[in-house]
Fold this sequence. Notes:
Number of helices: 20
Structural class: alpha/beta
Region (Disordered): 1-20
Pfam family, one: AAA_assoc_2
Number of strands: 7
Distance between the termini: 91 Å
Helix content: 40-55%
Protein name: Putative ATPase
CATH class of the largest domain: Alpha Beta
Strand order of the largest sheet: 2-3-4-1-5
CATH topology of the largest domain: Rossmann fold
Strand content: 5-15%
CATH superfamily of the largest domain: P-loop containing nucleotide triphosphate hydrolases
Domain AAA+ ATPase: 55-172
Shape: extended
GO molecular function, one term: single-stranded DNA helicase activity
Amino acid sequence: MTSLFDEPAEPGGEAVDPGAPLAVRMRPRSLDEVVGQTHLLGPRSPLRRLVEADEPMSLVLYGPPGTGKTTLAHVISLATRRQFVQLSALDAGVKEVRAVISSAKRELTYAGRRTVLFIDEVHRFSKTQQDSLLSAVEDRIVSLIAATTENPFFSVVSPLLSRSLVLALQPLGDDDVRAVLHRALTDERGLAGAVTLSAEAEEHLVRVAGGDARKALTALESGAGAAVAAGAAEIDLATLETAVAQAAVRYDRQGDMHYDVASALIKSIRGSDVDAALHYLARMVVAGEDPRFIARRLVISASEDIGMADPTALQTAVAAAEAVAFIGMPEGHFPLAHAVVHLATAPKSNAVTVAIGESVADVRAGLGGPVPAGLRDAHYAGAKKLGHGGTYVYPHDAPEGIVPQQYPPDALVGRDYYRPTSRGAEAGIGARLGKLRAILRRAR
């Protein structure tokens, strides 16, 4: 059996550095080895066509950490047999970019070989630094592959975007992460069967990875090192927890616990227990729950349990959902917590929930009838002959902006669906609503 630290070789005889991190050693060597991103790598996808046809290309790869941006850059370079040069926007400037472009010109002129220039975190480049790439990209001296975790339409200059194909990478699914782990456990470049992984430990790795393959492999490597040091042939949950210093959260995203914790979060918010709500939010975040699922539940809660008692609660929940989509995780847990605190401490009312529920029930029960003639569309020829709009009174012509007038169908006259509470902003709404209804119903 190959030991944990044997030195496997790449195809073509290029050895893999045994001291390199597991995530580097397991980097795919072809498009077919890439896990996930099927929307980009399918048989008829633009990326596969560009690579297999060896066409000059420049790409902007946009996605969360650990989804394969660097991997795709390496694979494209290998598949097209081009020179690969990597720069990081954290420590490279215009001088370094120009040096790479000069080298690429020489390589193209004297060896006929094109260069792939991979720039990681391109959003950290200034406008001047990004502009320094334009002529080389336009003249196809380099094939630029720029990676970013931020929306490129906000962080990359328009001229560079117009010369590039923008590809959005998605977080890996649980099955994708499992496939990455299984390959690393058995592949000669990885752990080569030196250790196995218990089912419980595997679930924990998938959970803490949160769709990030690099995070999963880093944790696996740490657990394997701990197991080998202890003389164990299997990485169990206890060994893994000790190695990665993160306790397993008893949480099954596909089972009852998923719904139990989500239910507890919403009920804690409804019950105004902000501390319990934050606890359940933390359990979901640490367990790797999809932040979009959490955000959706908070948006629903803002209307269902708070409603008009605090109209700004819905704004906060929607803003948190947009913020999570914009910045991703792990930082996305800050706006989620912001929303949870706002919702849990806000005054509560289910008056909106009751109002729409009763209204829908009446419609389904057949209560309705014709729209009053005065409210019907009168903007077409012949509408007046039908009596449409003739009795309508324009509210803005009245001093208070409201006039006695029938708006609901006859069957629903006097029906009060919305009954505000005396809590929060609804106390004022209730007082105003009483006056509004009194004026409106003088016509009846």
